[in-house]
Amino acid sequence: METPEYEAGPLLQKSFAFAVRMMKFHRHLQTNEREFIVSKQLVRSATSIGANAEEATGAISTADFSSKIFIAYKEARETSYWLRLLQASGYIEEKLFLSLHDDCQQLCRILYSILRSSGRA
Fold it and tell me: Most buried in the list 13, 48, 74, 99, measured by CB within 10 Å?
C-alpha cells in the first residue's frame, strides 16, 4: 500500500515510511521473536511520530503547530529508546538496528530543527 495521492513534505514522507517500516518490524518481533511487550511500545511511539506531524499540518494556530511537532519529537526520542533497548537485549541484529535507528535519528533532527525555527527549542 502506498501513500495517498497528495503533496506531502519531507517530514510527512519520512515519518510515514518509518511508520510502515516499524509496523513490519513489529510483526517480525511478534511472529518470529515472540516479543510482545516492548514491540508494542515501539510501534505505538513510532507510528505516533507521523500521526502528530500530520496533525501539525492541519494546526489552527502556531501554538497548536508547535505543540504537535513537540509531541512528534518526544515520540521520536521514545522510539530511539525502545530500539536501543531491543538491540541491547539481542532482539535486533546490529545492521538492522543501525538502519532503523539512523532513520529515527533523522526524524529527530528534522523535528528538532522545526522546533528551533519555531522558537520552541
Answer: 48
- 2 secondary structure, DSSP code: -
Residue matched to cell numbers 538496528: 97
pLDDT tens for residues 57-97? Answer: 999 999 999 999 999 999 999 999 999 999 999 999 999 99
Q: How far is CA 61 from the centre of its chain?
A: 23
Q: What is the pTM of this model?
A: 0.91
The Cα 110–Cα 61 span in angstroms is: 20
What would the grid cell of residue 109 be? 533532527
User: Residue 1, class by beta-carbon neighbours within 10 Å (0-12 exposed, 13-18 middle, 19+ buried)?
Assistant: exposed
